[in-house]
User: Fold these one by one.
Assistant:
Number 1:
Amino acid sequence: MKNKFFANSFAISILVLITSCSDDFLNEEPVGTVNELTLANEEGVNGLLIGAYSLIDGYSSNGSPNGGTGEASGTNWIWGDVPSDDMHRGDTNGGWSQINDIERYEVRSDNEWLSGAWGINFDGVARSNDVLRVLATAGEVISAEKADQIEAEAKFLRAWFHFQLRIKFEKVPYITEDVDPALVKNDREIWDDIEDDLQFGIDHLDPAPSEVGRASQWAAKALKARVHLFQSEFAEAKPLLDNIIEEGPFQLEPHFYNNFDEEHQNNGESIFEIQYSVNDGAGVHNSGVDHQTLYPNVDGLGYSYSAPSFDLFNAYKVEDDGLPMLDSFQDDLLLEDYQISDTEEFTPTNHLLDPRVDWTIGRRGIPFLDWGPMSGSDWMSDQLNMGPFMNKKNMFYKRNKGVISTESGYWARGVNGNNFRLLRLGHVLLWRAEVAVEENDLPTALALVNQIRQRAADDIVMGKVSNTTFEEGNPIIVDYSQPAANYKLGLYDSFPSVEYARMAVRHEMRLEFALEGMRFYDLVRWGIADSTLNNYLASELKDNKLPWLSGSSFTSGKNNYWPIPQVQLDLQPGVLTQNSSL
């Protein structure tokens, strides 16, 4: 959860407001306004900086075109997971049409969720630029060392928000503090601008910030490496990744699942994460408010609007040696309890599975953290139309309910303060493996993939459920001394070719990063979105499964990026232009 650095953001802003007064009433600013001269000191600039940090979660409390339903979520579940082969939108059939269009690749420029994604990120850019502009007027009031640190943090954030825009919309303007935003065209590539801001961060950010939540030098290096990967600049990404691995203070957590629970926030693997908080006097505005709909229908928490796909579940199938079924996992899809009521008989598959599956996906007959075994369709809004699986990575533990979850009144009770890891060492290791494959350094790629797999090999979900039905009043019998399912995870002996290694590394990224908002962007940058997503749709919809998704198809070049919101084009005619492929 957020530490005092974030919790005090509102107090700092209020303090700045109430202390700006004058003996001359003719020169007084209207109540509730603050001019830049008033803020041109360390406290004022830091308050502006905290305001910029506050938008990393993708949620604004001011009700501008960015609500709390996920349009610009920092987790990227809407734009990185839903249109990928990892997740369905959940909800009930016919509901939430804006996301339905995203999953079907039928988004028009007037889809209001586009405005949310565009608006919140450019709001973040504007706030970052406010910091830089006011900082420039402060002069010697702020020490040179402190000014460099503040500038570096603001430029990191500006790069972060522009990066979020670039991977979604492709053609976006790069807005700096010294330009009129209304006049900046989106007629050129902005990767170099992002890199320049991140390089300033690398040169000036503190490698070990004194306050949890602030961007570090390592975060700038990790993000810059990711930016290079989006451009297939493997030689440029390599030294950044190597430096983090060899010189950084990070180590893999002993358990894969530590990266997703509230008791291991800001852990030794974490490089940069969204700092959520609850029960701090801010209502829901510092929490993961946009995740409220993603939780299961258990204990009144959520609405199960995040439904992992059949394809993702089957990607965790393994051979007898514990290695993935890289090119055959779509054969004979395991459907689990799809179209089977919780009161009808069903037993989970006995197929060998990578144990990470049951820390990633919730499914019937398997313990769901400490909430008890998932009983099936009664935990979901529409199991018939959305499939039988649930997102497990973003759920908090029942033992922390009321501590990690909000005590404030709200329409959904799942609002909580469980942080989200945006950058972690696991990402860096597999990105470095990707670089190694593209440089034909297969031994390095093999070692890095096996390092990730070794960490997860013993992460077994315990609790064998005897029940085959879950009627009300029927006690659930669980033997917690037994594994919940048939798990096995083996290490690769070798990568016999570049092609095999590339497939193995990409598959490993999917297994390790599933439901973390990365998959769709990776498919696009690898140039395989067309073949992968259309093969997935053919498999996912076979035998009339998920009929609401029938007829969907991905078109390369057209669906790689989303339309620029029509309202923005109307506001800036002759300045902004729509993607030519749309």
Note: Residues 343 and 472 are 8 Å apart (CA to CA).
Number 2:
Amino acid sequence: MVVHSASERVLAGLDPEQRSAVTAPAGPVCILAGAGTGKTRAVTSRIAHRALSGEISPRHVLAVTFTARAAAEMRSRLAVLGVPGVQARTFHAAALRQVRYFAPRLLEGRAMPELLDSKVRLVTLAAAKVGLRADRAAARDLAGEIEWAKSSLVEPGEYVVAAAKALRDTPHEPAKVADVFAAYERLKRSNGVIDFEDMLRAAVWGIEEHRDVAEQVRAQYRHFVVDEYQDVNPLQQRLLQAWLGGRDDLTVVGDASQTIYSFTGATSSYLVDFPRRHRGATVVRLVRDYRSTPQVVGLANAVISQARGAEARLRLELVGQRPPGPEPELRIFTDEPAEANAVAARCRALVEAGTPAKEIAVLFRTNAQSEAYEKALTEAQVPYVVQGAERFFERAEVRQAMVALRAATRSIPGETPLPAAVVEALAAVGWAPDAAPAGGAARERWEALAALVQLAEEYAATPEVLPIGPAAAVERPVTLADFNDELARRAAAQHVPTVDGVTLASLHSAKGLEWDAVFLVGLSEGTLPTTYARTAEQVEEERRLLYVGITRAREWLWLSYASARSPGGRARRPSRFLPQLDRSGGAERAGAGPGRRPERRRTQIVSCRICGATLLAGPDRKLGRCPTCPSDIDDELHERLREWRQRVAGGQRVPAYVVFTDATLVALAERRPARAEELIAIAGIGPRKLGLYGEAVLALVAGAAVDDVCPEKTFEISP
């Protein structure tokens, strides 16, 4: 009875969908859990409920996660629920534990090979053996290709064909990558070491080829849980199948809309195909979002609703559970420095208003974008931390470039224009201003050095003014030495240690995290989606990246992009993933006269006032609600508005819709504005119509009769 009551307490506070997941019968269970829907609570409650009811023993459960942090959180929650002893580990940690335990048996008494922390050193040596010179960035990209191949169960001799089928953007000619792969494997064996993929393979081999090992492992682990199942790669799936050994007590949790690691070999196909591969599987959808406001949830739904491809088949439409919050904002800036400065200013305002700096994040597509925000936050005196990457001036390639720039002051003529001098100096570290190379690390290195060239262009546009007399001055072009001093100043300013600060992170490294306020920046074509997303599948993954970024925000969300990279630069288009909004209202900054480009434009993202969904269509934005949401129209007011419009249109000798459209009248009768600010917030009512009709409309809403607001005169309408 005590055990039964404990298991019942686990169910307390769960929503109906979570309860269905927790109480699902033994066997294959697929929990499709959207962002913020409490998946960790659901899965730990499932384990605890089964254990406390006596259905399973905690020591027979293996829960697999993708990060040590997630595994620790799962163990902690299970302990609080009264179920200690569950093994919650990453795939690699679980495999390493098993391989070490069985090593004496599998290796016939030989010591277990040393595990490589990084492939880069051996890959560099392997590249040299096949006549390929690879710096650290190139070696990292080659190592990434080898990891993809091994995770995808591809051998060196199969790499060329497999890479072509997968449309891999290889860092070198595929045959040469295959040669490096083969040389790396030979070096590994001769040095008596293994890598992480070898360890997973060893665990698979131990179970598949040794019956006694298989029996012992399967006797120990009888019930399996896999978190983030959309991120499983073929090698990990092979290990999972080996653990299962044909059994089906498996619970998987995932969200196909958060599949953003395909480039590493991860595939959502196992999640998508789970019901087909496991006949009779229980499928539960968690859609109640407890993390974000309905406004943020509505925008996330709007973005992912346009998704296509296999992952879109499991798309979840989230339902926000929190109280309403501020509308997300879309900001448009003339250039990236203006965007970064505005973000820093808003971060400072949020901190001064009481938002902890650690509850604010600035998220971008690539780490190379961080420099502008590091600088802007430093100048705004806002502390920050960089998540999952080095600070810009701490990156190895940037430090090397700064050494080369200082050395170049002795060899490059002083009259050389600064941007040209910087390009020439960077040639010493292998940078050229042509297309970025293939490969993620090499491309990121190229982009970081390109950012230095961009800085030089901006710095050169502000020549130093030197006084030559009491009332005279002369402009002096900035030199390479001046630029070096500027870089040193920036580097010194950004080395201030911080603990509690605004998080700067790439969208990939932000996965699994959340903040009160999130800035999604650089949302332009060529950045998100990146120009390197060439196939439909790659473009869809970029869309999912934006979706992941949006769903990191609990309450306050800012989306922005710059019309140009630098002042006066080539114009860019906004990301195709952003909602197509009506930007007619409030688009120009006050004071921006003819011939002047506005510094920034602001577009309010309108949400349904009933369900919180983002409204994209013009009529829906005008009504302030979805067409399927119930109307709360004041029919009597609507009739008075129609009569008033008819009289006004007759007096002006214009069609009725010229005064107000039918949709505007419905919006007025539903929303019943009481002030001019509320009236002008309705799409289609601008300053001009507010001046012409505002007083009459507000009077009608307040209860005035049509006769009272229609004097015997004709409105003067200027052309």
Note: Confidence is low (pLDDT under 50) at residues 464-474, 494-499, 581-601, 713-719.
